[in-house]
Amino acid sequence: MSSVLPLSGSLRNQLAVTLIGGAAILAVLLFFVVRAYAAQVAQQGQDSILVASAASILDAAVIRNGQIEIDFPYSAFSILNTPEDDRVFYAIHRDGTLLSGYQNLPQPHIQPQDTKTIVTERFRDETLRLIRISRVLVGENLRTEVFVTVAQTQDALSVTLNTISRTVALFGLGFFVLSALLSFWATSKTIDQLTRLTTSITRRGPQDLTPVDKPVPVEMVPLVTSLNTLMGRLDQSLKRSEDFIAEAAHRVRTPLATVRAYAEATLQRVSREENRQALRSMVHAIDESSRAAGQLLDHAMITFRADHIDLQEIDLVEQVREMVRNLSPIADMRDVTFDLKTDSDVSIAGDPILLQNAMRNIIDNALKYAPNDSVISITVQTGETISITFQDQGPGFPATQIGDLTKRFARGSNANGIIGSGLGLTIAQEVATAHGGTLELSNKPEGGACVTFTF
Amino acid sequence: MKFLLIEDNIQLAHAICSRMGLDGHVIDHASTIQDAQAFSQTDDYDLILLDIMLPDGDGRDFLQRHRDGKKDTPVIVLTARSQVSDRISILDLGADDYVTKPFDHAELEARCRAVLRRKGGTSQTIIRIGNVGFDPVAGTLQIGEETVQLRNRELRLLEVLINAPGQIFAKQKLVDRLFSYDDDVSENAVEVYIGRLRKHLKDSSLQITTLRGLGYRLDHV
Amino acid sequence: MRYFYLLATVIFGLLASPIMAVDWEDQRVFSGASPSRVLRILSSTDTAFFEPIIESYLQDDPTVTVEYFVSSTSDLDTIFRQTPKAFDVVISSAMDLQFKLTNDGYAMKVANLPHPDWAQWQQSLFAFTTEPAAIVINKNAFSAQPIPQSRQDLILALRARPDFFRERIGTYDVRKSGVGYLFATQDARLSETYWRLMEVMGSLQARLYCCSGDMIDDLESGKIAVAYNVLGSYAAARAKTSKTLEIILPSDFPTTMMRTALISRAAQNPEKAKNFLRHLLTIQAGGAYENALTLPSLMSRQDPNGQSTIDLTPALMTYLDDLKRATFIQEWSNAIIQN
Description:
The complex is a heterotrimer. By secondary structure, chain A is α+β, with helices and mostly antiparallel strands. Chain A has helices at residues 11-59, 75-78, 155-202, 221-269, 273-307, 316-333, 352-369, 424-434; strands at 61-64, 67-70, 88-94, 97-101, 116-123, 126-139, 142-153, 312-315, 337-342, 347-350, 375-381, 387-391, 438-443, 449-454. In chain A, strands 4-3-7-6-5 form a five-stranded antiparallel beta sheet. A five-stranded mixed beta sheet of chain A has the order 9-11-12-14-13. In chain A, helix 1 (11-59) runs antiparallel to helix 3, helix 5 (273-307) packs parallel to helix 8 and helix 7 packs antiparallel against helix 8. The longest helix of chain A is centred in the N-terminal third of the chain and has 49 residues, at 11-59. Chain A is rod-shaped and about 165 Å long. Chain B is built from eight helices and 14 strands. Chain C folds into two domains: 2-130 and 258-308, Periplasmic binding protein-like II (D-Maltodextrin-Binding Protein, domain 2), CATH 3.40.190.10; 132-256 and 320-336, 3-Layer(aba) Sandwich (D-Maltodextrin-Binding Protein, domain 2). Chain C is built from twelve helices and 13 strands. Chain C has a seven-stranded mixed beta sheet, with helices on both faces. In chain C, strands 7, 8, 9, 10, 11 and 12 form a six-stranded mixed beta sheet that branches. The longest helix of chain C has 15 residues, at 270-284. At the A-B interface, helix 4, helix 5, helix 6 and helix 7 of A face helix 1, helix 4, helix 5 and helix 7 of B.
């Protein structure tokens, strides 16, 4: 059952990647938008100062005695002071001739409908923000237009922009980190629901095919519904196949029982040795086949249960006692007695059905080989490990085969005439393994086989 | 003793009836739950043998109703299902024991005896001959004031002999009754148990006589 | 050392021929012990004030020969604009002209100098002194009168004795002196008193000078009794030897400027120029050197920041505007020249 499913990626990763990727894109977008906006605002700040500077120069322009005088205030330039010591250039033109200031300073055209123009220009290896405004002066017989151009480098602006970029980048990063954390949280929250469903299904015993009835999120309802349907169908088909097996067993075993009962009854009446021998063989064959069928089923069941071992707290002593009680009548038939030695309560985590099966097989084995009027001692020992020892007074295991007897269909060389499928010890061995324990076969020096089941 | 056998397979039922009859038991046979209920209403049985798969329902339902009806007649289930889980569910429903088909008659008998003994009801059919009282269910032999607990094979041997005092039983017959068919025993093995019984009956008014070449006979002296 | 100076002066004519067309106020050559490079300094500061600085520099780096050229602040501006390649370091007290040179891109950036922000511009123009403009008087002229402490006092004093002061008042000719123009424009910007003082001085036929040195000479000799807006540092240096001079820092409002240095962008020897600048700034930072200085340190003023009243800002360019300058000169001329 532990086959590996082909994987199609991780839902958690997909979710996390999508969310975090989204957050990253948003953060980057946020960074660019805010920075662009901040740059615009900062540029507007510089522009408005440049405009104020140029306007204060232009405002000072007057015509006096036919001459243009511009006694502009000290503040016209002092307001252009920046922490980054930006260079300042200006030019005052009258109808295209330079009155004062820097020659060759770009003179962008002012659109007719505007009173000013603002451009970014290169001048003397510097990028300048340049503003040009004009005013028409009217004096006696004179009408002239004065242009004022003020330009400034953008060092302070770029420093401001860098500061803003850093701040915005930090903000974006913070946003991203927060979103990432939130995505992780949301992802694990979502996956938790799946995990919880998985756990609730994994924790079930192998026989539990009841529908999931715990509340689940809306999105998982279709999954859980189809899971429930599937389990329902599985449950039904299991029941059907159980019924089928039961029916089949009944159909086969009942006639066998009939034949066996007749054979036994007949055996009481006939006295000719050859007839008796024939009847014995018949009974023997019936027992052999029914026992083999039973053990094959048991073995299949054990393989299934061992894969999905359903550990529960059980009272080991009570289990053993129950088993002894159940088998006493059979032992009695041969005047074999059980000698049960146990400590008080020994509680272990185990699968009671598996354990009963294992013990029954071990004791059955012992009963088959135990001589008449003998004792089978069963000892439950606690200590560092918990173990059950089954010891009979029979011939013991064949020494040369002792390591192989737990293999499937392996039978001891001294098993002639004794009913057995060779699966009993295999079953016990597999149950021990499923419980993380061992099954040890040995022979007692004083004679007799000893099976130790250790947890 | 009186048994109720609920089994729909007529052949098997006959086989069981005839085999049990050999042991001197009285058996009523019902092949449906309906019949079974009718029988169990009217008559008191020492033991019920119950098949699970019946034409008109599940034997477990009968068991359930039987227990619900506060009847404590012991029930041994005859089941075709061999698995431990099935056995457990049967026991949980109130069955006293079960036997998996096909079963060794000796085992069935042993289980019946064990169940009856566990139920504690001493048999109403204590056999008394002379100063001997024999309780086949409890497995006790009372001689005068002394009570001896018989071992299984002694018990079964005595049961055979005491049911027909004066009748000669061939060694062969006795071996068949005492040993499972696959116990590889010689006819002489029965001598051991005859010897033990003789020892128990030493002070009684019963004695086992050996008839050379014929077998054994229980005589009342 | 003297020997080197003499020798250097002899061969100076041959070496410096490309810039010899100028009529220098002074020119000196300071040679290190093993000269291999020439560092040319164009300065408006009298050689005497810079001699100790240059000499201490040469002790640190004897591989340099320093050629030191002195001219007036406005000539300096003109000369440098014409031949920026000929000079490595430019030093002037005319902050506005220095500022404009820097703004116009004549200065070289010297990054990462540990210099206060207010005392530098564009990491290119570095101030190294804070110096007041002073009223200097010949004490003999005020033997019986109270010594004026402010511009207003001075106006009253002049008006009180017009005949005494006629042609005995001196100030910068702002048309010729850069630093004079700087002081004048800053005074005019800050207070109307300036114009009234100019009116009074004009009415008394004030004498106009190109340079502080000449003005102090005449003051010491008694040719003039009062000099207005003299560089305090020069006057203080002279006052050490002359008992007749008294320096008054006007109490109404002070005008302080900063002497600035820049390295020519076209400097032939930029590394040496930077070393020299570093040396100059270190010395002039004050502190341990304070007492040995011939020029006031950058922090010499009472102001806790030592900051000058004239800031290194683009506003310095205001009065350098041709139109503004024409207007100002016109007004100034109207006030002071009343012939």
